[in-house]
Amino acid sequence: MEAIKFENVYFSYEPTSSEPFYDGQDGRQAFALNGIDFSVREGEFVAVLGHNGSGKSTLARLVNGLLSPTRGEIRVFGMPTSEENLFEIRKTVGIVFQNPDNQMVASIVEDDVAFGPENVGVEREEIGRRIDFALSSVGMEKFRTSMPTRLSGGQKQRIAIAGVLALKPRVMILDESTAMLDPRGRKEVMDVVLRLNKEEKITVLLITHFPEEAMLADRAIVMDHGKIVKQGAPKNVLLSGDVENYGLKMPISVRTCRVLRKDGVPVPDCLNATELALSLKKLLKSGGRYAMNEFNFWPYPSQTVYNKEDVAGGEIICKGLSYAYNESSPFETHALKGVDLRVPSGSFFGIIGHTGSGKSTFVQHLNGLIKLPTAQKKYKQKKGVKQSVDQTLLRVDGFDLTDKSTDFKALRAKVGMVFQYPEQQLFAETVFEDVAFGLRNFKPETSESEIEMCVREAIEKVGLEYEKVKNVSPFELSGGQKRRVAIAGVIVTKPEILVLDEPAAGLDPRGKEEIMSLLHDLKNSWCKTVIIVSHDMDEIAENCDRAAVFSDGKVLIEAETQELFGSAKALKDAGLGLSFTAQVLYELSNLGLYLKAPLKVCEFAKAVACAYNMQTEGGAGKWLT
Amino acid sequence: MANVAFGQYYPASSFTHKCDPRTKILFLIGFIVAIFMAKNFYALGACALVFTVVACFSKIPFKSLLKSVKAVLILLVFTVVFNLFFQKEGEVVFEWEFIKLTKEGLYATAFLAVRLFLLVLTSSLLTLTTTPVSLTDGLESLLTPLKWIKFPVHELALVMSIALRFIPILTDETARIMNAQKARGADFENGKLTERIKAVVPILIPLLVSAFRRADELGDAMDARCYSGSTNRTKYKKLTYTWRDLIAGLLLTMLIVAVIVLKAYFPVII
Predict the structure, then answer these.
(1) Of B143, B138, B161, B142, which Cα lies nearest the Cα of B153?
(2) Of the four listed, A93, A136, A315, B136, which is most buried by Cβ atoms within 10 Å?
(3) pLDDT tens digits, residue range A225-239?
């Protein structure tokens, strides 16, 4: 039976326009959906892919009757989505949205799960049974009486799924439900979704940017400009070269295989690291001159010891940094428990760690948003007594952050900080005013013409056209453009150190890539040091030259990226994964082939190709070690 | 930080914590009535005794209780002093220029101070031992009879519940936006009043934009989960009275009886 059926559906957010058109001029579309025809069988797992603004979220809202089509018809188990069927349709089709915080009504988990059944008038005892069922389906029984604010993103999203499950739906739509989660949370949610599809036979419509998630589906649909442009088995859809034209990306495993083939290593398209390692093992007898002499996948890398107190420009030194929230109250939590870290000048530095590992707290110390006790206004040093807090050392770019006489305003001009979802901090009437905000604050004496010059430079640096956007309201821009404006507002003072918390979070693959290349460009021109906080190991491996792993308020490892991913065990201990390329090397080492290759995909491919070519040209055995 | 419960709630497992929120609300109302019925120190002493018993059973450190008084201390002192100088009748104990203190005035002032003190302490005992969520549940349940006069009890309770849910989220968000603007050189602590008011704009606008976006998304999520107002709606959460509530009820009854008896047998001060 067909669970969902779209027949020639058009949808416009502006009810006045009746003819479908696409206005290439300002990039806006009168129609969000342009003649959609598709159906989903009962029990099927369908992934819908598309870049931001391709119309895929509109599609989800139409199925559930939150929106109704401008033209065409949508049927859910044969029922058209009209006003009189709305209640039945919403009972049949559940939606889980993107932001876990914005879909919970109650402050206690079980009350929130009960919300749906209460709305449809289910008996009290039955609601109790449904809460049991829903919470155990998502593996959250233990959290029945918890408060959602204390849960992680993945847990919150599982509660949101439970809230939908309590209505006993036959179809579940996930509208980018994993976009705001870290890899662990994403896996938690995907495991639940897969289980519900396989065991409870719930039809799933998964809307996502992540090609890896789409690979799990029975069928993938690609949308672009409100139209379905491709559909079929996920493997066929995602592995065909033209998905990149629709702002999507192939899974990293396939991308790596393609680069390898381009460099002359004949590997097939592999879907995971184990597969690729196996086919590489067949091709390579040894690592050639890239062979590693010893097995260095296990030991923790050596900690850099440093004692010098003078700091070069753009450098950060931190020793023994601790911090507790709500000190001496029942809610006291120790976020940092003695952090030792050195970020050398001129590095593209990565900070990795789970939510709650203390990385955000650490980062906020760097520009004095959290001040050390000795740097606070009310702090008075006792005469003659050398205090224990003085042991803490925190120097950023020549500023001593343990001293309260430090000029924190000058520090903040030097250390630019871009928070998560920075577009949410935009406020001014025009892009120009928003970008100029920081400059006017830090250097009030700057002349208007100088301000204009700096703002123009910053806006052009982030890849926007100054003349076009300067007088536009920042709220009218698209998501990716807003983020650029927000970054421009931070770099306008030309900071020497730039810290970014999850700079690519929530963007589609193309947007992610653009932001990363922007950061490299900044590092090569304006900023000495760039620090990114990220959970994405591939992002770290591809971009950073050094990285630190935070775990439980401490720095677990700090090393060159290459060395860091070499210590697979240490990362596993912290509950973190490896980058894809490191995973391949690790799997190869398990197969007895010890290869040392750089982790950036293109360099990795070059090294593997080199090892491969040498043994084919020079004959087997010549390069064996 | 997200894991801070807002309000005063002090997590513990105690007799007082486990009482039904409705009992606690009704107990507070009854207690306030008793305090105002008490017209001499003996009756007030009985109230203080009952408060001490309840407070002891709540396992809340005395320091935390006193903290709640600190917030209204100025108001308390002001009322007391005001009262002290305006009681002109009776036996004069001290007189200087226009200041005249009488014996009755001193008694009355001391009485008022104790009364107010007890009032504040008992109210904060309620919020210290009851989570905002169960307070809301208790209020909703107590207000249910008002449905008869078409009072939107369910809607009010849902609004309160959503507010409670979003207060910590919005507090966090405010902190995040403030940090972001501080990182861009905004200064919220120094400067003239006009400058400080102007400095609020970069916080307020993003906060409003976000609040509206959240409201929009929440509305969709509620719609998607079949919300259609209070008609044909059932309620999962059910509050039940236990033996604890019986004891609390008995204690309150005893207090009120004691206050009435003491009022009849001993001289009235106020």
Answers:
(1) B143
(2) A93
(3) 888 888 889 888 888
The token pair that represents B74 in the structure block? 């100025």
Q: How far is CA A187 from the centre of its chain?
A: 13
Q: What is the pLDDT at residue A16?
A: 56
- The Cα–Cα gap between A31 and A9 comes to 11
Same-domain pairing of B59 and B135: yes
ipTM value > 0.90: no
Do B44 and B140 lie in one domain? The reply is: yes
Cα separations in angstroms, B195 against A441, B167, B187, B206: 12, 27, 9, 19
Smallest CA–CA distance, residue A121 to chain B, in Å, is 5
Distance from CA of A388 to the nearest CA of B (A): 26
Highest mean pLDDT (candidates A113-117, A321-325, A386-390, B111-115) = A113-117
* Residues of A whose CB is below 8 A from B162: 105
Query: Is there a single domain that holds both residue B189 and residue B221?
Result: yes
The reply to whether B162 falls in a domain is: no
Lowest mean pLDDT across A55-64, A170-179, A369-378, B259-268: A369-378
Chain A interface, mutation test: which of B190, B226, B227, B235, most A Cβ atoms within 10 Å?
A: B226
Whether the Cβ atoms of residue A534 and residue A502 lie closer than 8 Å to each other: yes
Contact A425 B214 (CB under 8 A): no
Clarify whether residues B12 and B118 are in a common domain.
yes
Q: Encoding tokens for residue A261?
A: 């083939």
- Domain co-membership, B224 together with B241: no
pLDDT of residue A624: 40
With CA atoms as reference, the chain B residue closest to A409 would be B185
CB contact under 8 A, A441 and B187: yes
Q: Domain containing B46: what range? A: 1-152+236-270
Pair B40, B173 in one domain? no
The verdict on residue B50 lying in a domain is: yes
Query: Is B4 in CB contact (< 8 Å) with chain A?
Result: yes
Residues from chain B that touch A91, judged by Cβ atoms under 8 A, are 226
Q: Pick from B3, B171, B184 the residue to mutate for testing the A interface (most A CBs within 10 Å).
A: B184
Residue-wise pLDDT tens digits, B184-198: 888 887 778 888 888
Within 115-134 of B, beta carbons closer than 8 Å to A belong to: 132-133
Name which of A375, A397, A383, A610 is nearest A499 in CA terms: A397
Domain shared by B126 and B220, yes or no: no
Q: Does B136 reside within a domain?
A: yes
In this structure, the answer to whether residues B57 and B117 fall within a common structural domain is: yes
